[in-house]
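Troubleshooting: if your tokenizer reports a length mismatch, compare against these two reference records.
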Amino acid sequence: MIITGLTGWGDHVSLYPQGIKPGEKLAEYAGHFPTVEVDAAFYAVQPKKNYDKWIRDTPERFSFIVKAYQGITGHERGEIPFASKEEMFKAYVDSVRPVMESGKLGMVLCQFPPWFECNKENVEYLRYVRDQLSAFPCALEFRHQSWFEPEFKERTLEFMKNEKWIHSICDEPQIEGGSVPIVMHPTHKEKTLVRLHGRNTEAWKKPAKGEKWREIRYLYDYNDTELNEWKERVQTLEKTSENIYVVFNNNSGRHAAPNAKRFLEMADISYEGLAPRQTSLFDEGDFFKKWYYNKRMKSGL
């Protein structure tokens, strides 16, 4: 099964009727897609009340991809707000446990930074992380090319399979060191994650100090040719991994939702059991048809 969604639910303006309150957005989002990536969990270990609300706001068949806290993956700047790593992991596990118990946890996503390279020390740390998060299905995403260099590629994939890591396959700009190639190899028979970050190569490189590089890094609009390529790739992955989660992360220009909708249309995918949606002045189908028409006109097609 192909399960498609977006990163976060707050900024996808094309999905929501005018005047919707922030606290109502997830329930409305769940009328469009059956899964979402919880970015907030990366920045802080979320209180139980947040997950309880998010579980209530979504239908029975909805699932969450919860990002690992930045202290777990080594993104943090300065000291973590915990007395020890053990305390940090316990707090994170206790935080996410209600999602697991509700049956709505698709996976925990451990995305490691560009400086996390392939070496013995980091392999041992991955084992430690997987042990600490053993209660959950976990996806592993690299950002350093060394993991998939010819001399390490097969050993990396075998390691992931043996340690029960779900492979997070990425589409991202190819720059020296700080990105990984598309590696079409599931490591988990039940789940595979595909994350589409866009292909904005220049913005992927951190610009000069002071520029808002985070806001433009994921500024990318997938065209039909690229979406069709991913449709075919995902259908191939589905032959060896039961559930393929496809997450669009290219939202700096608000392209993620329209791109995901177009992907579903091209793949002829529709979902049952989505949440009911609020009625609005314009029909959603009209909005996306207008968006797609304007896009083609601007590109001269």
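Reference record two:
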Amino acid sequence: MSVWAVANQKGGVGKTTTAVALAGIASELREACLLIDLDPHASATSYLRARDGSGAEKLLTIGRGDPCPTAVEGIMMLGANARLATLERQQGGTAGMGRRLGQALQPLRERYARIIIDTPPMLGGLLINALAAADAIVVPVQTDPLALNGLEGLLRTVEMMRNAGASVPEPILLPTLMDRRVRIAHETLAEIRERWGDKVFDGGVVPMDTRIREAARDGKPVTHCAPYRHASSTYEALYEHLLGHGAASEQAA
């Protein structure tokens, strides 16, 4: 059983695409998979055509939610809606709020082999909850200079949580939206690898690909729509890496 959070403090870097792709691989492997949408914008909920957008809110308020089916067989979802933003404002300062998701996930860990969390692109209680509950954190990083600010913010948040005594896993940086025709994309990728070294996933880069947008339009993971494209092979390699990462963590514990 694994809880994987997909996070960045910047939008438009491929978080939802990554979360859905990982869930899609789990479904193809017939592993029981739950996708939790913690973003009030509800991108993952809309992407997979989930019928119920209240599941994540219920999980955080009453400690349980009823996962609903999605458009993809094998992926269950606790969906999001705009009320999550209100919940965050109302309960952001409540004692223990940052641990609420982790506590609520305990019974779900027994039901699902993979729990994948799509997070909001800003620092707040929802993101803190996801990071605190995760066994692994994937940080999609667009290969664009402006995207590095969101990455730096996320890494500062992880360090802040660790300094406060939280057990937060080392983030795995996934380069995304790579336009190989543009020199600045190559320069940014080189900078990411130089600055963050072994934190950067070395199994591939997610390229700019129209098939990714088409998959979102069709409500399917890109790994289902275009299994032989470079993006799909990168996500499959990431999935294997996360499985190995989890096994190593369990041995260390």
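Descriptive notes for reference record two:
- The two ends are 15 Å apart (CA to CA).
- Residues 134 and 159 are 15 Å apart (CA to CA).
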